[in-house]
Amino acid sequence: MAMTQVIPPRNTSIVVVVLESNEVYIIVSLSMRKDTQVISIDPTMGSLRYRGKLGHECFISEEEALRHVTDGSRIKCRSVIYGCAVLGYAALGSLGLLLVAKKLEATIPSLPGGGCVYTVAQSEWIKVPLQYAQPQGKGELKNILELTDVDIDGKHYFSETRDITRPFPSKEHVDNPDREFVWNEFLSQPFKDIGLPGICVILLQGFAECRSLGLGGSLEQMVALTARRSRLHPGTRYLARGLNACFSTGNEVECEQLVWTLSRGSQITPFCSYIWRRGTIPIWWGAELKLTAAEAELYVSSHDPYGGSAKYYQRLSKRYAKQESDSVEVNNRKETRVPIVCVNLLRNEEGKSETLLVEHFSESLNYINSSVQLSDAQLRLINFDWHANVRLNGEQQTIGTFWKLLKSPTMAIGFCEGTYYKSLQDLGTISGSVLLNKDIEGGFRLRSFQKGIIRFNCADSLDRTNAASYFGCLQVFAEQCKRLGISLDKNVNFDFSMSRQKQLSNAQFIGYLPPGWEERSDAVTGKIFYIDHNTRTTTWEHPCPDRPWKRFDMSFEQFKNSTNLYPITQLAELFQLSGDIHATLYTGSKATHSQILNIFNDESGKFKQFAAAQHVKITLQRRYKNVIVDSYRQKQWEMFLGIRMARHLPSVYIHSLEVLSRPPAFFLKPLDRIFPRLMGHEDLLNYKRKNMTWVSSTSADVIELFIYLEEPCHVCQILFTISHGGDDSSFAGTVDVRTGATLDSLNIVLEGACLPRCSNGTNIILPLTGPMNPGDLAVMGGSTHLDPQGNEYLPFLYNFEESEGDLNFHTRIVSVTFYPASIEKFPITLGQIEVLGVPLPWREIFHREGMRWLFIERSDMEDSKSRDEEIRGFKVEDYLSSGEIFPVRKTGQLVKSSFPRNSLPEILLPKIEIGIQHYLDCVRRISDKGHDLNFIEAMTLEIERLQVNLSAAERDRALLSVGIIPSTVDPNRSIDMSYLIKLSKLADTLAFVGHTFFEDHIIGATGLEAVETCLDFWNLHEVGSMCMGKHCEVKVFSTSATSSESQATFFSCTACGKKACKVCCAGKGAILLSRFSSKDAKNFSGKQTQFSFTGSDGAAICRLCCPEEVYHSLYVDYVRVLASLRRQSRACKAASKALTLVVGSKTEKRQRESEKAETWLRKLLNGEESLAEFPYAGLLHLIQTAKGSESALSLLLPIGYGEWSSYWRAEPSCQTVDFPIALGSLSDVSGVILLVSSHGYSSADCPHVTIWASNNINREDRSCMGQWDVQTSVATPDIYGPETEATSIPRHVKFHFQNPVRCRIVWIQLSLPRSGFLSLDKACIHAKRIIVFGSMAVPAPLTDSLSDNSNSNTHPPAKLWRFRVPVEGERLSANDLVLEQHLPIGSPPLAGFRFDYFSAIKPRVTHSPAFKDLGMWSSSPVLLEDRFINPPILYIRVSVVQDYSPNWVVVKEYRLPEARAGTIMYFDFPAAIHAKAVAFRLAGDVAAFCDDPAEEGPNFRHVASGLSLVNRVKLFYYPDPNEVGRLASFSAV
Ligand SMILES: [Zn+2]
Ligand SMILES: [Zn+2]
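Above: the input record for the complex with zinc ion. Below: its predicted structure, written as tokens.
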């Protein structure tokens, strides 16, 4: 099609390369950019990686990028997939899913103002298998695959350059879409997280196409139909009708009809756009589908059926308020009520089931119009029984009648009319309001606006809606054409032509001039005439003299006879296609009744019979689909949108960990006793070497590796790939792990952890906590121990003895020590090691971009004060409503006002001691009653403890100090086991219910301002709470005498109907939980997946009607929430501490003057690269730093960051300081620049500089690059004395090496001049920055000889045989967590046991959302999930009864690694054992696991059946070598 738009230099091109090594690269060349980005997918966790380094991840062309990825095509590719757009990505456990469009159709090639709308014609989910080594449920895995079956092609569209989520023309930028219509918001988040939001298009669902009206002439006339489907109610037909809890209706679509004219080379494009809406009836109703009945049974919610309707219309009125600038309208607000006209096409006859809905519909509008809820909209309902009309009067007359009905609302609402001007000058003087948008060249001049909206509906908003809306919009179309000077008239002498005189007197009714026409007045007579520049003719006649909206008054016949039908049939075709797409999305089949759209087509009669047959077929199809497939498809869309994840993908991380041990991470110490010799020191860390085995020399007793991580992070897990297999004894038996920021500060985090033998290539994970405080451990003991009485004890409610490791986001070095499994001298084999952690968003921090920066800054600003307060003062009101739930703590710390940071006296900061005091006061008050604590008392005490932010260890210490045994206040022990189990099940259900409810709540807020207030979620009270007044009919507590009654809110109990005050109500969670268990639970485990709390907004239940266990479960949930908030607060504090360590505590000075910095850097580097910038580079040892100085790490910060006059200085006593700097990657270093501090040098402190380079940390291995005496040998006079004026380049000293040196580590030593006796007291070493320059080394290609394992010059150790020891009898107890095996007499000595890994999962959701962690894809301060902060750890304790003694003796406790379900592990006993019986007990955080709810339905078993030891453990022995041959191989284990 001939378009005059600016053609972008290239089309977007996507290449997805999968290498033989399973690495996946996404190579993106966007049409809007000139360069090409390479994003890699982490092969283990699936997170996206992009650092933006030119020549490594950023290239000038796609070819260059491809060359880089495939190493000049030397590396083989498994597959190369070409695409034209990235539609989304998600890492879902063991599978990464990348959705790319492979074929696009430019269905609207050029909008007025430019920009193309593409419809996805063919898409592909690229499945990336990940090395995710954690158990995932079968149901989850199935769901993930089902997601890839979602119906994309032909039903989704996007524009790369224009915002098309709002009515045309949008004034918003393309990257700020209206979220209601963005379907891939969840799937685009990973790209936002790596700072490349533009990579993923903004995907809309529905229909967008255009047609030429084919009228010929010098102009081309176009019509486009766009239909955007709302994502707020994504459901399928029988699961999604009427309103949902997000105040949106099923099948809700906004449609837009855009007409414009084009002429070649023209600078202007006039256009008209019209918006309408379609969707099911916005009240709370539904349909029960019965296979036996002919029609689905309709019902309307019995409780508050119109409760959400006002919200629905509010959203519409906000969106369709008149677009004109507000200043014009300010004075007559009253008249700006937005008309919303509902055209209801349902059957409205006696006996028809739809009649019920019609009645309710009109009642709902009366209700809303009469209430004050909707002051800014004017609702009107037009009932028009479409089917009845057609049956009685025929189609043609129906259409005519329909037009008469629609005439006045359509004319009142009008449409948007304007012109696009390519040049801003042309825009200047014409009347109308101007709309500019940085996405377009030029601007829009808008002459009139649409105000309000017509909304069409039938029962499902499918067939009748589509047909009727066509005829309504047809009239608008005719008028749009006329305004644009497009004549649809067949016969100009039609009856309706009016006298010229009358037209002139009614000037506003004259149409606007077509493009190319001009109005002038005769210089002499003043008479108006018209110039047609297209034909160079003049005329007195206005070219468009018609009366406006004249076709509304026509009958069908008149319309048909007077109108050029070709454009009409073009429009009909668009409606038919659009109707089919929406019907398919909603019901899975095409629209019916659409033959009426062909009514203007003379041949339509022929199709009638065919259409009728088709209609029957589609109806049957729909029925089948609705019963069988609706829930399946609904689940797909929910996953696509990232909602209900707690249900569909319960164990999948939303923020996955990052692997920080891959190159450029490297080993700080040489590994020369390992074969094959590691060339680049990093092969063992390189994913490309995943399949290799390394073997130590036999002389090695232990192997100690020092891994220097790519970036500082908080380390959460270590992942081992077992190599060499389970059949030999060469793999290490145990491992120690130490972590720290520098080599001097390593702390042990894991000691003597057992590594099981597994088959070659098995991945096992050891979850890590930070280093534990030894004092804490002493108080609490290990979490695996039995309680003092030796009873079975599992903390099902929550972890009462939660132990807390230190969180450190500066962890940079991980040391792993392997010990051999056997005392015999076998070499130790190693496979790949991966360290997984969470880094801080340093890039955002230094460049002040992105949301997470703001969060961290905020959390840092408030630091220890407010995060604590958030916990202390954490009230349910933070969710929804107002009012104090928890009385102010005695500590007085709950000051609500926020202090300006600087005025906050230190003394006000919360102190642990005050918290302990408060806690002990509470203990005393409660235990005064002289009985054992009951459940509520124990829980209340824990709430108090968490409110004042005490750790479990701090609590235990406090209790012991006053002689109380901590376990006596443990709520887990305050109730009997069966109730404990029941309660924990209920609390798990509540967690799920809470997530669903809040999810709806957040989605429901889209497009609305206010958040509904309702009852608090928990609404818990302290003992001593007062009922709020005499009007309360429940009065659980004694009435307070105060007169707060006037403000008290009362709720009506849904169970007993009594009026209850807030205090006498159970929390919102109670009613949700009881509803869930009563009705929805059945659906839930069955076919249906939909589950929402539609209509539950105002509902409440009183305390007397609330079952006790429900009320108790609210307590459990609340304590779990508080415990989680404590974890999050610890993470935030650690993040803020890490930030402070780098950039100091003065937030206001933290900013980077980017432009200036870039200039400086360019001048300083003179074409070379800066190689040692934090966070990629770091310091390997602690540096002696003076008090009050900037931190030593500040020496490596990006230049220009922070306050310029501040600098680093050493302690005055230091004569010499060494800086061992690990570079960002292997580099060819040419020299070092020392930026001089603002203080400047003097003869006393002008340093001697010595520089070494090396590849490891051993001092003896480094080579000296030179020595410089800055004072004597470097001629730079301007470095002395304090800085006086701004210079064009910072003062610096440059040290050039003679030749560049390839190295990983640069050591810089600064020493004071030796003649220091004169100024001993003053001088100290100081500097502003250290810049290492040179170029990054291109990593040497991995040579083939290396991958050849025969290089290892050791002989493989002897193969191990394990034979099963037969068992005489088994006994299971304690919920299958204990397994006793009895052995026959004469059994061989036991060598160990085989263990098949569990199938239970760790659910991500364990409690209702704490007030900020719901936003699953919204940014939180640190992307560190709860369960990484305190990872649940399982142990297996083995005890035996030996021949000579009747008592059980513990043999060993094995810490279990994590692995995929069913992974086989062999554990050896410390020595061979002769035993009569062996017992295995599963211990540790058993309560943290559950069975896959995606598979089983949320069964919420108290102990996951997947943790059962049945058939999981087999004893084995090592046979005598002679025996091996005799024994049958089937006895091998
Ligand atoms: Zn009350
Ligand atoms: Zn009640």
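Notes for the reader.
The mean pLDDT is 81.
Residues 1027-1028, 1032, 1034-1035, 1060-1061, 1063-1064 surround zinc ion (ligand 1) (CB under 6 Å).
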